[in-house]
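Retro notes - structure team

What went well: the batch runner handled both jobs without manual restarts.
What didn't: labels got mixed up in the shared folder, which is why I'm recording both outputs here explicitly, each with its sequence directly above its tokens.

Job 1
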Amino acid sequence: MKVAIFGGTGYVGSYIIDELINNNMVPRLLVREGSDSKVIQPDQCEIVNGNIEDEDAINKTLDGCDAVIFLIALIREFPSKGITNERFQFHGSKKVADLAKAKNVKRFILMSALGASPDPSGSKYMQAKHLSEQNIKNTDLDWTIIRPSSLFGDPRGGERPEFCMMLDKLMLSLVPYPKFIPFPAPSFFTGLNPLDSGNYSLSMIHAKDVAAIFINVLKDDSTLNQTLEIGGDRAVTWNEIVTSIAKVTGRRVIMTPAPFFVVATVAGILDRFSWFPAGKDQLNDLVKGSVCDSSELLKKYGIDPIPFKIKNLDYIAG
């Protein structure tokens, strides 16, 4: 089987490429100029140079393929520069779906996100994911939508953003601070009660397990026209995530209640600047939590999920 991948040089894409190759499938990647070095196992891949707005390059990527995996999304938007999820994620997935239909490449797997919603008060990221879901559902392609919770695992290169490493870089390591002195790490609360701080949870799932699910879904006709929510073996609180990262990097932290509206207000003012560590949309998604029960799906595919534990976070320490 030959599989066209859009977003294959990204974080999840690197793991999916490995799984495709391990299952004797051929990945064909659309790769932007200057990103060839990000391709995992390039000698085992077919590479088409171009971008998601280049129809000719998309057609070349689809030629002779049996299936499509669409992974493109932006962690952070910069609308003033035209860098938005509506442009690259939604319109990109729509264009690929239209061209796949024209070429009779029927199998289409879309990576969405747990929490994708049209809610105008939500993030542009989640809104674009929702639009992509609705578009693919209205085609006659053999689609499957995969909605993962938050991912962790070695990013296999500094240019692939990974949740835990980003938290360490943007929060715990942002300000020079002696490791032997406890660091006051923020534990956000959204209401008026600081005792509720950090009580939101994420179903943290390892990128390798996500990739394994993609490959199983690709071969499983029972998932046609289905939306699958996937997460790890348990929900992990914000406080546990932060303290786990700190332990791996040899830091001591004190989880300190912090009113969310303060940081959200600051982020809303400064998130148009690339030097600011996090956008308002990202923070809003975080405190909403992201939890699901994937035990039956993991059991079905014989996947023993890699747990979110300190021993599985050693890549953070370098």
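Job 2
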Amino acid sequence: MSELNNIALKILENGKGILAADESTGTMTKRLDGVNVPSTPENRLLFRETLFSASSMTECIGGVILYDETIKQVSSKKNKIPELISETGACPGIKVDTGAKVLAGSPDEKITEGLDGLRERLKEYFKLGAKFTKWRGVYSITKNFPSRLSIQSNAHALARYSSLVQECNMVPIVEPEVLMDGEHSAKECYEKTSEVIKKCFEELILHKVDLRGIILKPNMILAGNKSEDKISNEEVAKLTLKCLKNSVPSEVPGIAFLSGGQSEIEATENLNLINKHNDTNFIMSYSYGRALQQSALKFWSKDIKNIEGTQKVFNHRAKMNTLAAQGKWSKDLEI
């Protein structure tokens, strides 16, 4: 077993998932504005530290994706944030892309940037304690998109990124996100997601990436948020599994879904059904941002000093998702 494979398996063992706390300062400011809390470095750290010190970190969270600001911060107990996370048994990770920019040649689509200087940044993050990294490619579905150019360009970037990350002895999370925004059907989502994932693996193999040392972070197969062609949660699970079985090489150890605009309960329910039907060797878990944090953030915003109460809300959500990652969740467990 390679060291990278061991890290990937450790992150996703026993129903554990990933807390995506890698919101950029701009995104975090929007979230805090939404609950009327001033977005200062101190408040951003306070909320994140509240989650990182919760008891569910030990039982439910195998990895935490951080943002550049957070990985360099020091907790109220004077230990570095990666150390605080490592003490819970979870692995610290870091978002390393610099965001989705307009794709030259197809200005209505996006390409993720951040390859320039990446090797040097990765060495720095490794020294700071990061064990894994994240890079997100985004694709829209319309009549003409995603274009071949977008699918090819983002797959190439994800592969170059992954190759550099493994060179620095970290596990790359490969995140090709086919967005939920739009009027497309679940069938179109299935077809486009399959095409996107297959192209990503073509490029990963071309770039000699060790597939046993990555984690795939895909979207689930859903109808667009403006589509009238909604499907049942059972269908979401079956189509998602079918897509991944046909698109992901068997060497990949684990798949951690993004929540992609689903509500907290939806994201948990769909993950649970995927695991109930999972007849593959892939670990199927979660890498959620809002779907793990939203209720905790709302609660915390009423009194940012109520650490214990906020942690209780977060612990519940983390526990529900870890049960779902084992196919053991049911609606009557929700508060």
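One thing worth noting from job 2: The chain has a mean pLDDT of 97.
We'll revisit the folder naming next retro.
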